[in-house]
Specification:
Strand order of the largest sheet: 5-4-3-6-7
Number of domains: 1
Largest sheet: 5 strands, mixed
Structural class: alpha/beta
Number of strands: 7
Number of helices: 6
CATH topology: Glutaredoxin
Helix content: 25-40%
Order of helices and strands: EEEHHEHEHHEEH
């Protein structure tokens, strides 16, 4: 399927999150921010997702449902993404990625901003390792490292309000952008 744009419609679906709970996309009463991340345990993605975790109260108060999708197995999802305060969905076969036109390619890491983002993750990953003894980065992700991020705001009726296809691994909406785009 091709890339989606504002005004396109997406079919309603129920997705299973990391804990086996059904998540409606779109939500019947709230705007859904459907973000496609790279892989569970991606240091760049997790640094980005922490900004959403810190501001989840503000996001929910704005009437936005957060849903993050990873091209990862259930085991990877439970290991790396189980502590997110919003729905985390594993899509190891990339079926949802294809439906939304989300791609992968070498350009994911072939950009100065992606390289700088990788460098920014070294401190947090090392701190987690020293504090917990667990490696916070997935060194051998299912589906590889070349996924590209994408973001969609979907209205309760399934209409795509806005879409962004990342050009590299660190090219996604910020919390402020999601809040601004979700305003009626």
């Amino acid at each position: 399927m091709g890339k989606l744009a504002a005004g396109d419609r997406v079919a309603a679906r129920a997705l299973l999150d990391v804990f086996g709970r059904l998540v409606a996309v779109p939500d019947a009463t709230r705007v859904t921010h459907l973000q496609f991340r790279r892989f569970a345990g991606c240091p760049i993605c997790n640094l980005h997702l922490r900004s959403f975790t810190r501001r989840i109260g503000e996001i929910e108060a704005a009437g936005v449902q957060e849903v993050a999708v990873f091209h990862s197995t259930p085991e990877e999802m439970r290991r790396y993404e189980a502590d997110l305060p919003f729905a985390a969905i594993g899509d190891p076969e990339r079926k949802l990625y294809r439906k939304f036109g989300v791609e992968a390619g070498p350009q994911a890491l072939a950009n100065v901003r992606a390289v700088l983002a990788i460098l920014r993750t070294i401190g947090p990953v090392t701190a987690t390792l020293l504090k917990t003894g667990k490696l916070a980065a997935n060194l051998n992700p299912h589906g590889g490292r070349l996924g590209l991020p994408a973001d969609f705001l979907v209205a309760p009726d399934g209409r795509v309000m806005a879409a962004k296809y990342g050009e590299h691994a660190d090219d996604q909406w910020s919390v402020d952008e999601v809040l601004a785009l979700a305003k009626p």
